[in-house]
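Extended Data, panel c. Modelled sequence:
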Amino acid sequence: MGRVYTLVNQKGGVGKTTTAINLGAYLARFGQRVLIVDIDPQANATSCLGVDKHAVKGGSYEALLGLSPASGNILRNPRLNLSLLPSSPALAGAEVELVGEEGREMRLRRALEPLVERFDYILVDCPPSLGLLTVNGLLAARDGVIIPVQCEYLALEGLGQLTQTLQRVRAGLFPEMKISGVVLTMFDGRTNLSNDVITEVNRHFPEQVFKSVIPRSIRLAEAPSYGLPISAYAPSSSGAQAYEALAREVLARDGLPVTVPAQD
């Protein structure tokens, strides 16, 4: 049975979508069947994989509203060995449309259930907010939540708020929900602040912080404009090496073998 992880942080600009795309791409390079699920109305994950969000005919919006099954709207990228359930601007209205619906918090979990046997990893990319879409993402996280944290001071304050939200969701809706890992992003080794943030995050999450730290990288910033993950855009860059290491670490934590990436 496949694993479902949700990437979440209510603070924008922390590398959440970058992590979802690049972690997924490297897991795929290691032979895993990977699906990226974009439930952000901004559709950044969709755009990062070279899909025009305005041309999407069916995706996460239709799956959440029950208009069509998720399986029928999956886009496949043969070059990357990666699949995508895309988002579109229509998703912006989903929170309002779902307010009066019974079981509205469980819509995404139910939509993804038929896909768990089809994929080894399903990575859900949430919007930078704590609304109903993110709650759907959290309840879909059968195997845990992955939290990207930017190595800056304000990220620590946002992390505290997110932790409180996760505790409320766990208490009221999903007692089994767990934090599977914290990914430190945008690390700048030239600053004391980045190192201080790493120390503080490790103090709060001693067992959950991934050893792989994602550096600030011009190549990581450029890759989305080409519709490519860093593994295809600049595989020798520091950002690529960091995300490859993260994928290896995720596989090791899950007790899965780490094989040599397929050659292009």
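The chain has one domain: 3-253. This feature is highlighted in the accompanying rendering.
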